[in-house]
Structure to design on (268 residues):
């Protein structure tokens, strides 16, 4: 029994080290949660528990208890806020001995993307106060999506189910806060969970989603001239939309995706 335990421990350590070295991920210890963490988009339970990434301009923290892992993501950088709210965010969980899954939240409707301001500065050039636009979008975020390792959607769930996965975002005075609670395999009440337990390592990636424009070329809709040679919304050099309104210039949102990689050691 003792020899078998030592072998398993050595194998587990080797796999953990290999995972860390190959992924280029940061190794972080999850903080043991000793108080209830409410998923409310507020930062009060995260003081002194966030790790700031200077390059990404984002702070991320991890806590866990015996049944759940908690994640907080916060940024004051307007470009990052725009990316998350216009593209959505996926948090990928890859347990040491389980299936990789992703949780998408916020779940972005491409039709609503146009309501979020493109510019990250100069309020006078924006259609409305950006915080008002952000608040409108946040108020619509009632669901989250679980996807498999191929990014194929599996389930669409209520984002505020206390017995399962919970997620919440808020913006207050320019500060963006994202909170996520995900049940572990030890949570017997949860229907949806990740196959990890306290004291284990888990790989966690945080990435903005890719928005893929679906070209309408070759599939003209009703009233569209199939011979125009331009997609709807494309300008023709006159700085005007097809409907006659000026085209908005100076798209200032940084196009570099958010990609953060961690190997998180869950507390006992």
């Amino acid at each position: 029994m003792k020899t078998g335990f030592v072998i398993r421990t050595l194998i587990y350590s080797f796999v953990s080290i290999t995972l860390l070295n190959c992924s280029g991920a940061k190794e972080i210890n999850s903080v043991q949660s000793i108080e209830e963490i409410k998923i409310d988009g507020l930062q009060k339970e995260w003081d002194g528990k966030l790790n700031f990434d200077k390059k990404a301009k984002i702070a991320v923290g991890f806590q866990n208890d015996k049944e759940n892992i908690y994640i907080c993501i916060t940024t004051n950088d307007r470009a990052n806020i725009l990316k998350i709210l216009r593209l959505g965010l996926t948090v990928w969980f890859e347990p040491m001995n389980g299936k990789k899954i992703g949780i998408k939240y916020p779940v972005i409707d491409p039709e609503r993307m146009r309501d979020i301001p493109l510019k990250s500065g100069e309020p006078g050039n924006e259609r409305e106060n950006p915080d008002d636009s952000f608040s409108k979008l946040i108020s619509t975020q009632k669901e989250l999506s679980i996807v498999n390792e191929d990014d194929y959607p599996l389930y669409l769930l209520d984002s505020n189910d206390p017995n399962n996965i919970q997620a919440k975002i808020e913006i207050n005075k320019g500060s963006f806060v994202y909170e996520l609670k995900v049940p572990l395999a030890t949570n017997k009440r949860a229907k949806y969970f990740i196959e990890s337990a306290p004291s284990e390592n888990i790989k966690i990636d945080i990435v903005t989603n890719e928005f893929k424009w679906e070209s309408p070329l070759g599939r003209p809709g009703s009233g569209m001239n199939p011979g125009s040679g331009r997609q709807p919304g494309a300008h023709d050099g006159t700085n005007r939309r097809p409907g006659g309104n000026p085209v908005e210039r100076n798209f200032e949102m940084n196009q570099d995706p958010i990609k953060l990689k961690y190997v998180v050691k869950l507390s006992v």
User: Anything to note?
Assistant: The radius of gyration is 22 Å.
